[in-house]
Write a structure and sequence with these properties.
By secondary structure, the protein is of the alpha/beta class. Helices cover 49% and strands 7% of the residues. It has a 4-stranded parallel β-sheet with strand order 2-1-3-4, with helices on both faces. A 4-stranded parallel β-sheet has the order 6-5-7-8. β7, α21 and β8 form a beta-alpha-beta unit. The protein is globular and about 70 Å long. The chain starts with 24 loop residues before the first helix and ends with a helix. 46% of the residues are buried.
């Protein structure tokens, strides 16, 4: 007799992306129909994102009012609304493995995206947006950067970009930095390595595309915090995009190419005893979950997984080792803090909030719901308004405590929340990354 739901924690099967059957469209449609039928009978995920309302509307408007009445050609309408946040799998679905129904909705959507990519049905716009290393060529050249940033702020150019590339003219877009983080990062002082019971005493920084090309200040804040706590660090010697943007498009071969660049560098550091810190949750998740599931037999990938830390996960563990400084010179007042989806999926708990709550005279309002930005989803013309609709409960919750600061570990989500608060006429507050807030509290 089938169980109603899981009595055990969800587990993840490796992604069988190298098999011929993975890309077999008939096999894919059979699995989509099986899973959609289970989802239709449950509907517990209806409030998470647009994938599920899209599916249920297709079912309810069909002749049979069952999944068998939905045209196979309409399945992609559901797939296209999924941005791989993983929340349905981690927080809602009662039928994930080890349940016998073996339902992994996000990875089924990923398989469908991979089939779509293999068929050449991904737009130029999506390919451009997923090429963060290519876009990063604009960063670090002051005249070019200033020109690109200025042009991107003009309404005529944004209208042109919307018409040509399908990037919504009203969506917030990041600027390019005049100086890349990696080329201007301060070298660590020669502090002694103090290993704790829970934490390695030396750190390697995987800077991420966003910090390197767009907001290097976040990286400099992280280095200042490490220096203040006398934790020696190094920069990853050679670094490419983690591959998450390509994963979201279904470009698994592109992910493998990025992995071939990054994993040898990171595995060497992991084997040398470094804790590897990444200041962007999606990048951390890529190394903790997605790459290990794509390459389950790669020892180096598994070694990197074991060595990868979210910065605040590391700081809280370091504090438990009695090796973190907790003398703070500046209160932060009221902080509305948003936990990004890709932080929640890592199952590390509310480590950022735990750290910020240690600061005297600081009140943290924790908001734990999807902001709706989801990487490139929130900037696309066809999805921008939906992303604002998904994020509206977050915008209201973030503004509810009259915060002095709004903050999210995902800086893209932070900017999206800032824009959403403005669009909804909510009282504005200064937006700052949690690492920037921690540095401010230290007074360094």
């Amino acid at each position: 007799m089938a169980r109603e739901g899981n009595l055990e924690a969800p587990t993840r099967h490796p992604l069988d992306w190298l098999s011929d059957d993975f890309y077999n469209e008939e096999s894919l449609n059979q699995e989509l129909e099986r899973v959609f039928d289970i989802c239709h009978g449950c509907r517990r995920c209806v409030s998470l994102c647009a994938s599920f309302p899209t599916l249920f509307d297709l079912v309810d408007e069909s002749d049979t009012m069952e999944v068998d009445g939905v045209a196979k050609s309409d399945y992609m309408k559901v797939v296209d609304q999924c941005y791989l946040c993983d929340l349905c799998y981690m927080t809602k679905c009662p039928y994930t493995p080890p349940h016998e129904w073996n339902l992994d909705f996000p990875h089924l959507m990923l398989r469908a995206k991979a089939v779509k990519y293999k068929k050449g049905e991904v737009s130029t716009r999506d390919k451009v947006l997923s090429d963060t290393d290519g876009l990063g060529m604009f960063a670090g050249i002051p005249i070019v950067t200033q020109t690109v940033n200025a042009v991107n702020k003009t309404k005529p150019m944004r209208a042109l970009v919307e018409n040509v590339l399908g990037v919504d003219k009203d969506a917030w877009l990041p600027e390019f930095a005049t100086t890349k983080f990696r080329s201007n990062a301060a070298k660590s002082k020669q502090h002694p390595v103090k290993d704790g019971t829970k934490t390695p005493g030396k750190v390697a920084i995987y800077s991420t595309c966003y910090v390197n090309y767009n907001e290097p200040g976040i990286g400099h804040d992280l280095l200042a915090i490490l220096e203040h706590n006398e934790i020696p660090y190094v920069m990853v010697e050679k670094e490419a995009c983690c591959g998450m943007p390509k994963l979201e498009q279904g470009d698994l071969e592109g992910v493998a190419e990025k992995k071939a660049i990054n994993i040898p560098q990171l595995a060497k550091l992991a084997k040398e005893g470094y804790a590897i810190l990444t200041p962007v949750p999606s990048c951390t998740l890529m190394y903790k979950q997605e790459l290990p599931l794509m390459f389950p037999d790669c020892a180096d990938t598994q070694a990197v997984k074991a060595a990868m830390w979210d910065p605040f996960e590391y700081f809280v563990a370091r504090n438990r080792d009695g090796l973190l400084k907790t003398e703070f010179n500046h209160a932060l007042g009221n902080v509305s803090y948003h936990i990004p989806c890709h932080s929640r999926v890592q199952n590390v708990g509310r480590k950022t909030a735990d750290m910020l709550q240690m600061i005297p005279d600081t009140k943290i309002n924790v908001v734990e719901r999807c902001s709706g930005h989801a990487g490139t989803y929130g900037v696309k013309k066809e999805y921008h308004q939906m992303s604002l609709k998904i994020g509206k409960p977050v915008f209201k919750a973030m503004a509810s405590e009259a915060p002095d600061y709004i903050s999210s570990d995902c800086q893209l989500a932070g900017h999206h929340i800032e824009q959403g608060m403005e669009v909804n006429g909510l009282k504005p507050a200064e937006m700052a990354h949690p690492l920037s807030l921690l540095r401010k509290a230290y007074g360094i």
